[in-house]
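Researcher: Structure for this, please.
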Amino acid sequence: MLSPGLKLQIRQELIAAQIDAFMENELLAGHTSLGVGGPADFVVIVRSQEELLSLLEIGKTFGVRPFVLGCGTNLLFSSRGYRGLVMKLGGHFNRITIRGSLVAAGAGASLPRLARMASARSLTGLSFAAGIPGTVGGAIKNNAGAFGREMAQVVQEVEICSLKGEMRTFSAKDLHFGYRFCRLPMKGIICKAILKLERGEKEDILREMEEYRRIRREKQPVGRRTAGSVFRNPHQGSAARYIEQAGCKGLAIGGARISPQHANFIENFANATSDDIEILIEEVQKKVREIHGLDLDLEMEIVACKKD
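Model: Predicted structure, token format:
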């Protein structure tokens, strides 16, 4: 944990900046889909650009860089927690406005909610996102996608706040999208995005969204504690297929197991710890390497417990 004296100073600065939506020693398990994660020194919800800039300045003053947390659906926090500031975007950053075929969405806005709002306006291009839990910012950062579609195909521009508090807007051509990643042109925090969609038939869009949901229910462990796909699909094919062929489907360590339904998902089925999950990941990588001579890269982010 941060020292009591440093925590007191940070608390006083948060209050002085009128940032009142913060929690101390907050268990991160309650903020992640895996349900794993020890206490963070501070979890701060910033609700405006002013609060964001103030928090960045506080972090800079005390040498504590905030970690941006969306819905916690594609990451693993240590069971030992996180030293420092964990920041969640709320309020102003949750707004979604639609004008014609252009959608302005705050980085903290829910991606499934955005997909539903677009479909209600007969806008197509986000049907694939209806079943992807997470925020708009996280979806852009990871270039989230499914069913042959991805965020790179709809993003027109992104507003980023640098770690120095400078706001800049970049067009899609300035963003370096790849398979399940986006390399931003500068270090910073995604604050807002403009998406360009297309007009379509509402009934067709809704039918497509429901079909995608049906496929997810049939093939993925929907409703269980997971963090989505654990590994990126290699160029040679499906990560799930390689994992299953390596005999890892259903493999369990502690309270974590490879999903019996989909081999590229890890389920927290019995109060798993972060160590259980990390050991299971390493075991799967080892077996796939031994049998297929293939290295599986993580799609899920592992956030280490930072030392004081």
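Researcher: Any notable elements?
Model: The two ends are 6 Å apart (CA to CA). Helices lie at 4-16, 49-62, 111-120, 136-141, 202-219, 239-245, 274-292.
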